[in-house]
């Protein structure tokens, strides 16, 4: 009997700026997403300037996880659930990310629709450069 240990799953991490998020109806279509994304990006009266904060989007074959990175920034280490206690914004299986939207007029930003058991949320992120958005579109 051959003694094999399971290999660790490859994970890609993207450092992004969270522009915002909104709950949306589960039947939201691709045609509706540009308006939802525009609504998320629009500053509200009396609200601070967008963006909301820095996050790390961790993508693997089994999980998509988005975590706040203020703590990671101080440590300069990749996010690790055992050492970083900041809140997880969302964590789901890849099939729960049901739509991705990349606006050609804003090449450094993209939106995604994430479905959990009962609700859907649209998250809008901004990349440091447009190559990151190209990578996430292909994921």
TrEMBL record:
<dbReference type="InterPro" id="IPR011993">
    <property type="entry name" value="PH-like_dom_sf"/>
</dbReference>
<protein>
    <submittedName>
        <fullName>Uncharacterized protein</fullName>
    </submittedName>
</protein>
């Amino acid at each position: 009997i051959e003694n094999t240990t399971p290999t660790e799953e490859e994970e890609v991490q993207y450092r992004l700026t969270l522009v915002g998020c909104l709950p949306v109806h589960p039947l939201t279509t691709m045609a509706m997403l540009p308006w939802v994304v525009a609504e998320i990006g629009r500053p509200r009266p009396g609200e601070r300037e967008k963006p909301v904060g820095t996050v790390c989007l961790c993508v693997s074959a089994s999980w998509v996880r988005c975590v706040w990175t203020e703590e990671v920034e101080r440590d300069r280490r990749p996010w690790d659930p055992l050492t970083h206690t900041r809140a997880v914004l969302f964590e789901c299986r890849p099939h729960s990310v049901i739509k991705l939207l990349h606006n050609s007029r804003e090449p450094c930003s993209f939106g995604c629709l994430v479905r959990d058991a009962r609700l859907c949320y649209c998250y809008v992120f901004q990349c440091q450069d447009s190559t990151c958005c190209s990578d996430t579109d292909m994921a």
